[in-house]
Amino acid sequence: MGYHGNMDSESGASPAQNVRDRILVAAQRLLAEGGPEAVATRTVSAAAGVQAPAIYRIFGDKQGLLDAVARAGFERYLNSEETPEPNADPLDDLRAGWDLHVGFAVANPYLYALVYGDPDRVRDSPTAAAAEAVVAGKVHRLAAEGLLRVSEERATQMLLAAGCGTALTLIGSLPESRDPSLSSSVRDACITALTTRPPTTPAATTARVGAAIALRADLDAAQEFSPGEKALLTEWLTRIIDASVRGDALANLS
To answer: CA 173 to CA 180: how far, in whole Å?
Structure first.
């Protein structure tokens, strides 16, 4: 018969670990509901059912608590069972990883912004470094297949910059005003710029869309059309442009 006085009988965790976990769970919920401002030590201690000094003893201060919340959240994401197995096609694998990253950001905006919205935190964050290592691994697969047109280091940094920028743009806008095709458009533009695989869009379609974009950009200066005609032409040109974006997205899913 062993001595278990310092262990929880059900979970096997020590009382100190249980207190830490309760605080983290409470802080994570408050963060998701109201952002970093909602993670006040008094509010967290009440939600976790502990005394406020326990937070300072375990995490040091509010900043230390937020750092721990960010680490725990990203570790769950990186180790999630929903993370897909590597695809046989390294480009499909990269697309899936991009979509997972941006999807996590949109689903957890305050948590994502804790790391990637703070220069000091992202610079020293082990979770950000782990996420970068995942991207680097996917880029290395592209390099091994002879699909890169830039160095692995350059491709990794470009993908990180574009992916984080896209995620922060999406979570910084109201849900009803978000462009659902923005992420896939930026993703595929990066793939086209970084890899040697030819784009899926036919050259004729690309030329037509380019002409539509150029004409729409010049409509304000055109004197040949009335305001009503300009509005109608803008609508038609926008349909051509948007249809191309949707077509590219569908092509990448097939």
So the answer is: 12
